[in-house]
């Protein structure tokens, strides 16, 4: 791999062994529709769901009399192993079972535990996750082929290995589709700007700079408090059942949640994406509650439920405004003015029609809330699960599953003097009615959309980040 370091940001230009262009993995995952096995369970894992196309009240195709002129992709990395701290906890939970539960207890749905060993790694993309990202590149190219066939996307990534790898895998899928379509792609491998996730680095694709948000309990503990409150409504029943079935394990509250987490993580650790046996230990209602529990974590961590959550997404929103309007970035939060004033690391102009940025679930949540996309969702209750499938509903599984993708589109339409902006998150058109007076197809004129981004333009509550 040849990597050029340019002013602290790493520009990758690597030689890559290409996989064959597969359209699906196992029998479960497809480029456009995403993960489609046992959807009554797998679509209710919060941010641990693998990407799936979310049903859209508004048709998600490009309106017949319009041409797409610009797309900004914002993507989460693909499916990964548990984070290092979680993998250590899961290992302990399984060790309790192995050392304390008599073999005679491993019957029925628990029989698999007799031979199950904890072998998951930490932090890295799984093979399934890599293929998800290749599929995402394929899906993007297919959806926007009119533009994609003639231009090369400008790609940025937050610096953590799995995010950079996700970006690279996405470009592979895009490239293979382009080769299949037009027969040549001389720009490949594409330039990739990776912004480090180190302390003190201004990075719009990764939060870290806002001191009080990161370290003061007023902000940092809101999500875990909300989750604990809701967990108390549904976890004790499951805990009692597991403890009765596996005597001696003495599962705590968090062991019980770990047992649920082991379902998604063992599923995406399997290259075919076949459901893990852990998944069958819980009922459909329990998965709905789990989904809501994970949703609360994002909403009270980085969304409207946290006083400084949406502020974390301000820097990226201001970059998006710059790209949409072909004007210089105006921001005093997490943007890096050195990077954003350099055309090599932040090109802007009408000739840059496709942008692709790669980040994390938490950061993307902050960005969606900085833009006010879910401002008309009622405050999420911590005492009972609310209906997330309502028109303005919000859920983690719908917005930031693994390999999730938001498309910010501009389109030129017959009879419209101005370009229109439309936003899709995982194929669901976000109704912009309460954001900027969006029409029945979910679109606002560019000037109205940008005019509505007052929270970001004013810097959110960045002034409150520092005591
Ligand atoms: C789990 O580990 C045990 C002990 O090392 C081994 O006998 C068993 O085959 C392993 N199970 C699987 C599914 O690999
Ligand atoms: C689980 O913990 C045991 C004991 O500390 C350790 O030997 C093993 O490597 C761990 N396994 C994984 C997959 O982390
Ligand atoms: C994904 O990208 C990484 C980094 O370039 C590469 O090592 C890996 O083989 C790719 N995955 C697939 C399935 O091609
Ligand atoms: C901004 O980016 C430049 C160029 O990559 C880098 O040298 C500098 O350290 C960055 N500064 C901050 C505060 O992130
Ligand atoms: C934490 O933030 C709250 C609210 O801004 C503030 O009142 C409090 O003084 C802060 N605590 C510390 C230790 O900075
Ligand atoms: C079960 O775990 C709890 C802590 O979660 C502990 O207080 C209790 O003593 C344990 N019970 C047994 C029988 O080990
Ligand atoms: C990085 O962000 C800080 C905090 O907003 C800002 O004061 C500083 O000027 C930024 N640095 C660069 C290089 O943009
Ligand atoms: C949730 O909201 C949707 C849309 O308003 C509605 O169709 C559905 O019946 C609601 N579900 C429940 C369980 O209330
Ligand atoms: C869309 O593009 C086609 C082909 O370039 C062109 O003929 C048509 O006028 C465009 N429509 C609009 C509304 O710009």
Automatic annotation (TrEMBL):
Disulfide bonds join 28-37, 66-413, 210-465, 263-279, 436-444. GO terms for molecular function: acid phosphatase activity; inositol hexakisphosphate 3-phosphatase activity. Residues 1-17 form the signal peptide. This is Phytase A. It comes from Calocera cornea HHB12733. Keywords: Disulfide bond, Glycoprotein, Hydrolase, Secreted, Signal. The active site is at residues 77, 361. It is found in: Secreted.
């Amino acid at each position: 791999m040849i990597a050029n370091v340019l002013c602290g940001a790493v520009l990758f230009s690597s030689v890559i062994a290409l996989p064959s262009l597969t359209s699906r993995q196992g029998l479960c995952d497809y480029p456009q529709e995403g993960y489609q096995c046992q959807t009554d369970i797998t679509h209710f894992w919060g941010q641990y769901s693998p990407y799936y196309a979310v049903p859209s009240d508004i048709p998600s195709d490009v309106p017949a009399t319009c041409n797409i002129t610009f797309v900004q992709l914002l993507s989460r990395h693909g499916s990964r192993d548990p984070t290092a701290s979680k993998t250590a906890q899961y290992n302990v939970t399984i060790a309790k079972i192995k050392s304390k539960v008599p073999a005679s207890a491993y019957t029925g749905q628990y029989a698999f535990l007799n031979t199950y060993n904890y072998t998951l790694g930490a932090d890295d993309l799984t093979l399934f996750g890599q293929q998800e990202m290749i599929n995402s590149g394929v899906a993007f190219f297919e959806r926007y082929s009119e533009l994609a066939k003639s231009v090369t996307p400008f790609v940025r990534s937050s610096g953590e290995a799995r995010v950079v790898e996700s970006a690279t895998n996405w470009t592979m899928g895009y490239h293979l589709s382009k080769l299949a379509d037009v027969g040549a792609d001389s720009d490949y491998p594409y330039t990739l700007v990776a912004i480090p996730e180190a302390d003190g680095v201004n990075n719009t694709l990764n939060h870290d700079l806002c001191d009080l948000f990161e370290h003061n309990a007023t902000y940092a503990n809101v999500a875990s408090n909300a989750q604990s409150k809701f967990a108390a409504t549904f976890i004790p029943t499951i805990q009692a059942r597991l403890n009765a079935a596996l005597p001696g394990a003495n599962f705590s509250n968090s062991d019980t949640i770990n047992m649920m987490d082991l379902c998604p993580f063992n599923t995406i650790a399997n290259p075919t994406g076949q459901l893990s046996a852990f998944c069958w230990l819980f009922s459909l209602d329990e998965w709905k509650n789990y989904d809501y529990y994970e949703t609360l974590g994002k909403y009270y961590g980085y969304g409207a439920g946290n006083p400084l959550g949406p502020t974390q997404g301000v820097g990226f929103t201001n970059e998006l405004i710059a790209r949409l309007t072909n004007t210089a970035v105006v921001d005093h939060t997490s943007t890096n003015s050195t990077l954003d004033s350099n055309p090599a690391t932040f090109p802007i102009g009408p000739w840059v029609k496709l942008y692709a940025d790669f980040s994390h679930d938490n950061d993307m949540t902050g960005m969606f809330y900085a833009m006010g996309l879910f401002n008309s969702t009622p405050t999420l209750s911590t005492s009972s699960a609310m209906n997330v499938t309502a028109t303005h509903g919000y859920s983690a599984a719908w917005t930031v599953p693994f390999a999730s993708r938001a498309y910010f589109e501009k389109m030129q339409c017959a009879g419209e003097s101005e370009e229109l902006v439309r936003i899709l998150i995982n194929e669901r058109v976000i109704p912009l009615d309460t954001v900027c007076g969006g029409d029945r197809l979910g679109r606002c004129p560019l000037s109205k959309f940008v005019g509505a981004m007052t929270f970001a333009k004013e810097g959110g509550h960045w002034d409150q980040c520092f005591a």
